[in-house]
Amino acid sequence: MSAVPNDTSAKTARDFTYIKPQRRRLTEYEALTVHMQPDHLDFDRPRGCIDEQEWYLLRTDGSPLWDPTSTALKHPDWYSYRDPSQHWQRTYIRHQEQQEGAIDRITEDAALDGSLAELDPRWISQVLCGHYRAWSFFEYAIFRALAPAQREALSDTVGNALCFQSFDHLRHAQDVIIYLVELENHSDAVVDTAGKDAWLNSPVYQPARRLAEEIMANRDWAELMLGLNLVVGPLLQQLAVSDLVRRNALPNRDAVSAQIVMTAERDRRRNLAATQALAQLAVETSNPDAEANRAVIQGWLDDWSRRADAAAVALAPAFDAVPTKGVDYATALAAARATTVGIITELGYTSILGVGR
Amino acid sequence: MKSEDFIKAHDRVKEFDWQASYAENPGRYPMPYKIPAKTSDPFRHLVRDYCAMERDKDDRQYGAMSDVMARAKMPAKASERWTEVLKMVLPVTTYAEYAAMKCTGQLVESVANAELRQGYLAQMIDEVRHVNQEAHLVRYLAKHAPDPEGFTQGFRLRNTNFITRASRAAFDGFFAGNPIEGALNLQVVAETAYTNPIFVTLTEVAAANGDQATPTTFLSVQSDETRHMANGYATLAAIASVEDNLPQLQRDFDTAFWRQHTFLDSFVGAVYDYFQENRGGSYLEAWNEWVGNDWAGSYIRKLEPFGVSLPANWEEAAERIKWVGHTAMMLFAASWPMQFLRVDPMTAKDFDWFEKKYPGWYSHYGKFWESYATMTDPAEGRFPLGLFESPPPLCRVCQMPCVFPRPDISTVRIKTHAGRKHAFCSDGCERTFAIEPHRYANNFTWDEHFEGYELGDWIVKCGLLRADGKTLIAQPHLKRDRMWTLDDARALKFEIKNPLRDLPAQGEVLVLQ
């Protein structure tokens, strides 16, 4: 075996020293994520004789591959963003495999110990099929919206966080389907098509459906991330899934639904933390566009709060359909609004939803 | 889950899309194709079984690398000649994976079919997986290889090295255009035609040269690629089933093939044939098996009844394949101080192998490699590119030197468009440009960026020095002693030129409508 001389290799760095770690040492997440996306403004700029920004191949319409106008927010270095969860693919998939394994095991246990056969048919038909299955379409819409959002995001660290969140929501949507398929083996009350019927036709879901369609048509990746995780998650998904399904599940002796929702809540907490980090980055004092960003974010929060709240208000009849009530609609809505206001005000913004707790 | 339940669940996830009533999404990507409502994802994965499958694969790959291989110091035992080229190969493949992730995001948005959309999501996460796996391999080798210089800088040098710049020009095609153009570049050409020669056959070369880390990573990557090929086939079959799509489809297919061929065949050919120490098969043999027989002879031929033909320049590509890797390697070795790896001379054993695998090789390339071997000592004060009267210009489209397939039969042409001069390496690249010249308006070549730089200044600027601040990362040999320094490079008195500046144009590009 040969090797290069000791006098040149002795002091040689054996890591990616060009990445600025957020903390003292470069983490595995940072090493495998940062600067995977070419940064034509800075890191990847050849800095030779040509000042113009270079693109090997523009888009069909002549715009650049990564377009600064893909979000209304401005920041000189989106690559400095770090997802607090520090997920890279391996840690993310391991986490989701554990969550799916937990759901799979509890479903199997509930099937074998007779719990599924003992479920109240009204809980199955009115809540699981009539509501939760309808809600799976909302989750699917978020998956669809975030897949192109990750494409457009202006750094790898933001893009990967959006990519993982996109996966979160399809996982949740599919979990509802898989659970109902298993329930069909134990109950005649399952009518899978009821969910889509409700989603398309019931007035209870039309504001949510409108919001889902607007989410899919939204082209601003930062707006999607902030709107979904600072408003839709704590207000609408909290109400539609955490309150209506999870908090009513145990009074209706349905441990499986509670487990499914708890895994989605774990994802939601992760995505909230990721978004709080993005919101803070956008307005950090070193960003010359901080104040303009603050105004943009305030506008987004107001707009998304209005639309998400309309969808939340429309859900009231769905709470009436719960056979054994663990939580009442008015209390749940007030709490979800208060939580959302708390998240918004903690970041230094005002909320149209009132005073937080 | 029982298999009948799995089938039932999978049937239901196909029904997730609905017709919008409140906010129609006009689509953010141009889509000059009609997508039929009925298509299929032949793999029928649900997120649950996907996560279990991928976790298992991750545990096996990362476990092997962090446990047995690291403890046994296996990276240090691999052929150094082979290990050197991984410094460039891995940043190139990693970017291909990253670009693929962006492509699948576009496909989820644009292909109005819930089943395919969920197949694309699995691919999207796969591509994040591959980015992480390959970046992890770079970092692993930076930690464990005898010479880490080059491994630690590869990603940083992506846009200042003329070969890695050409890889960007190829892989940006995965997501710069309409989503189907991206799918053709990625799934139909790069993944279906080229991942087998890269991730399967190349790993045989790696293993034969004592490198176990690359096969462990690449074969795990390749285990996902079968699904991606199926995604590509499902997409292609769906598009081809609508007759109105066929003219656009064939046009996008032709350009996709040429865009990938111009970079991949010359680059992978050079890697495959010139960095083996313990020699086995040739790239030409691998290409004939996987690209010629498997892809063109089987996969694409099956689409002929649908009206999809082999790419327009297929025959030309099949002829070029005999030489493009050698030509690329000659230019690469000739410009070794500008690289970030060590390129050792070919030996008598190598010469015999080349002549056997590529009859006629010596008459075209033998003299160059004999000369190269005489210039490895800095005391000689020569490097091959300095002896060229004028280096070839770089192609506006593929960014590769316009010297293919061989310098004596080069298909270079110089044309103007909109008052700007362009070199094209081939008919295929000129035609690709002529279809959409506006997409190259912000495209510059390496020569245009760096003309006028003295070699030493350029090396300092690009950070191509080792930790001692004076020895070059690149070397024209693998020896411990007599390494080239910055002073040696300056003594060459070489100035980077833009050959396009002095070459006369042969006319205007005929823009195709």
Descriptive notes:
- The complex is a heterodimer of chains A (357) and B (513).
- Helix content of chain A is 62%, strand content 0%.
- Chain A has 12 helices and no strands.
- About 1% of the residues of chain A have low confidence.
- Chain B is mainly alpha-helical and 513 residues long.
- In chain B, helix 4 packs antiparallel against helix 5.
- The mean pLDDT of chain B is 94.
- At the A-B interface, helix 1, helix 2, helix 3, helix 4 and helix 5 of A face helix 1, helix 2, helix 4, helix 5 and helix 6 of B.
Key phrases:
heterodimer, A: 357 residues, mainly alpha, 62% helix, 0% strand, globular, B: 513 residues, two-stranded antiparallel ribbon
Greatest contact between two chains: A-B, 97 and 105 residues
Structural class of chain B: mainly alpha
> Gyration radius of chain A, to the nearest Å?
23 Å
Low-confidence segments of chain A, given as residue ranges, are 5-9
**Compute the gyration radius of chain B: what is it?**
23 Å
Low-confidence stretches of chain B: none
Indicate the structural class of chain A: mainly alpha
List the helices and strands and how they pair.
The complex is a heterodimer of chains A (357) and B (513).
Chain A: H1 6-9, H2 28-33, H3 89-112, H4 121-152, H5 156-184, H6 193-201, H7 206-217, H8 221-249, H9 255-282, H10 290-314, H11 316-320, H12 329-346
Helix pairs in contact in A: 3-5, 3-9, 4-5, 4-6, 4-7, 4-8, 5-9, 7-10, 8-9, 8-10, 8-12
Chain B: H1 3-13, H2 47-71, H3 74-77, H4 80-110, H5 114-144, H6 162-171, H7 179-208, H8 213-240, H9 246-274, H10 283-300, H11 314-320, H12 324-334, H13 348-357, H14 361-374, H15 384-387, E1 413-417, E2 420-424, H16 427-435, H17 446-450, H18 455-462, H19 486-491
Antiparallel strand pairs in B: 1-2
Helix pairs in contact in B: 2-8, 4-5, 4-6, 4-7, 5-8, 6-9, 7-8, 7-9, 7-10, 9-12, 9-16, 12-14
